[in-house]
Design brief:
The protein has 118 residues and is mostly helical. The chain has helices spanning 21-28, 32-41, 59-74, 79-88, 90-117, and strands spanning 48-50, 54-56. A two-stranded antiparallel sheet has the order 1-2.
């Protein structure tokens, strides 16, 4: 699966908490209408909706979109095949994703600590 920093063609995911659909579109190289379609097709993809039905994606959503993109565009899966792959490997991927999120949080906390020491 694609990791946040392992895909050379996509930009690194910034250390923000929420991303707009336009930002996610740029980060994942996928058009906004495709993202909205994938929300209907992949139950794992659930951005937060706020005022005016605006979507706000979190880091784990961006990672999931990159995984979906990799399955569909690079590995040649169909929508149904990608959905099944994500569902069947969900428990294994959840632990990998959790470890990745923990590493990211740790890095951010270390950065904050170094800023506070200065």
């Amino acid at each position: 699966m694609l990791e946040a920093g392992n895909n050379n063609e996509l930009p690194a995911i910034p250390g923000k908490r929420y991303f707009t659909i336009g930002e996610v579109s740029d980060l994942c190289n996928v058009k906004p209408h495709v993202l909205r379609y994938w929300e209907q097709e992949f139950p794992q993809l659930k951005p937060i909706k706020r005022r005016g039905n605006r979507r706000y994606y979190q880091r784990h959503d961006v990672i999931m979109i990159r995984q979906i993109r990799g399955l569909l565009y690079e590995q040649g899966f169909t929508i149904g095949g990608a959905r099944q792959k994500l569902t069947s490997s969900g428990a294994k991927d959840d632990s990998n994703q959790s470890q990745q999120i923990i590493r990211q949080i740790r890095t951010e906390l270390e950065d904050i600590l170094s800023l506070l020491k200065n």
